[in-house]
Amino acid sequence: MRSDAAAAKEAALLWSYVLALAALVITLLVGRALERRHIHWLPHSGVGVLVGALFAGLLRWESGFSASHFDNDVLRDERFSYNAFMTILLPPIIFDAGFNIEQASALRNLGPSTFLAFVGTIFSTVVVGLLCYGAGQAGLCYPLGLLASLTFGSLISATDPVSVLSVFKACGVHDDVFAIVFGESVLNDAVAIVLTRTLLAFNTPADGAGSSTFGGRVAYAIAAFVLEFATSLVIGAAFG
Q: Half-sphere exposure (CA, 13 Å, Cβ side) for 57?
């Protein structure tokens, strides 16, 4: 016979599935109701975040008044999985958007998208990094060094295209606007990678693969990025 602990864990797993499906249904119903009433300031993704926060808050509140670990097991099963998101959820969204985007608009606006991705991301990195560094020196937040502040700026300057795509699709924006924003949001991920790699290379001791000089570390970081980008492009083109 199974132990009580194993039975409780199995019950918690089943309840986690029930709660996940319930949250999904509520998100779809509320999002559809908002869409029918032409309320676009709260997209489906925003509804999903609010519903998930509500369910997690209720479970945490309940676990505080429970003598067992049942609710904690449910929370553990419902915990966000980075691998599941990056492997299962995100690729179909990006691939669907890239497959359905109008090719003529994407090629026609490739220049503006590239310009905004490179110049905009670098500008955002510098501005956010300097603001973070200045706020730390002024005692408004945890003080970071200039290099760490710039690295933080490069990490958060890569905008997420998922919410943008959902809002644009609901509003029915012009194809050129959709192509520019989508292209920029995808390309700036690559720019953020090379910026982060370059900045981290300055703080990494020299080894056999790198160089101790400033220019050598920049060249090594850019070469690593180009290799990763080219490999990803070949794999994507082959499967496409």
A: 6
Helix, coil or strand: residue 157 = coil
Instruction: Transcribe 46-100 into DSSP letters.
Output: HHHHHHHHHHHHHHHHHHTT-SSSHHHHHHHHTS--HHHIIIIIHHHHHHHHHHH
Burial of 50 (0-12, 13-18, 19+ CB in 10 A): middle
- Taking the C-alpha atoms of residue 91 and residue 85, their distance in angstroms, rounded to an integer, is 9
Q: Could you read off the pLDDT tens digit of each residue along the chain, which spans 240 residues?
A: 456 667 767 776 677 778 778 888 998 898 888 878 877 777 777 888 888 888 877 777 766 655 454 445 666 666 677 677 777 776 776 677 667 667 777 788 888 888 888 888 889 999 999 999 999 888 888 888 888 898 888 888 877 666 676 677 767 777 788 788 877 877 787 778 777 877 777 765 544 444 556 667 667 767 776 777 778 778 877 887
Q: Which two tokens stand for residue 83?
A: 């691998």
Q: Is 224 within 8 Å of 233 (Cβ atoms)?
A: no
Give, for 196, the enclosing helix (H) or strand (E).
helix 175-202
Contact 77, 16 (CB under 8 A): yes
Q: How far, in Å, CA of 133 to CA of 145, rounded?
A: 7
CA–CA–CA angle 123, 124, 129 (5° rounding): 105
